[in-house]
């Protein structure tokens, strides 16, 4: 059984469960995920999870510790042409990529 805080109304709980945010704030800029701070063993899973939350027409910025070619190959296999990738920065300290969900 899931415990719900007493101060949340059913409407607020439903909006959170459906992936909507009831806080009233929305990102104007692209959200940025710094993968350099995510443990290597779960890094790709965390990135795919974050990308799964991106709605069509929206995007995110990924910051990686190296050129993420293996990740991009996995992304192409999973998403096909549903996600466009463009480099914003190519090293040497960090690689920044814009991931844009087309559909």
Keywords summarizing the entry:
about 100 residues, alpha+beta, 3 helices, globular
Structure overview:
- Strands 1-2-4-3 form a four-stranded mixed sheet, with helices on one face.
- The N and C termini lie far apart (35 Å).
- The protein is globular.
- The protein is built from three helices and four strands.
- The chain has 103 residues and is α+β, with helices and mostly antiparallel strands.
Radius of gyration: 16 Å
> What summary fits the major beta sheet?
4 strands, mixed
Class from secondary-structure proportions = alpha+beta
Low-confidence regions: 1-17
Sequence of secondary-structure elements: HEHEHEE
Choose one word for the global shape.
globular
Number of strands: 4
* Structure annotation, total helices: 3
- Amino-to-carboxy terminus distance: 35 Å
Rounded mean pLDDT score: 84
Helix content: 25-40%
The largest beta-sheet arranges its strands as: 1-2-4-3
State which percent range the strand residues make up. 15-25%
Question: How is the secondary structure organized here?
Answer:
Layout (H helix, E strand, L loop, with lengths): L9 H8 L14 E3 L8 H10 L6 E6 L4 H11 L3 E8 L4 E7 L2
Parallel strand pairs: 1-2
Antiparallel strand pairs: 2-4, 3-4
Task: Summarize, please.
The chain has 103 residues and is α+β, with helices and mostly antiparallel strands.
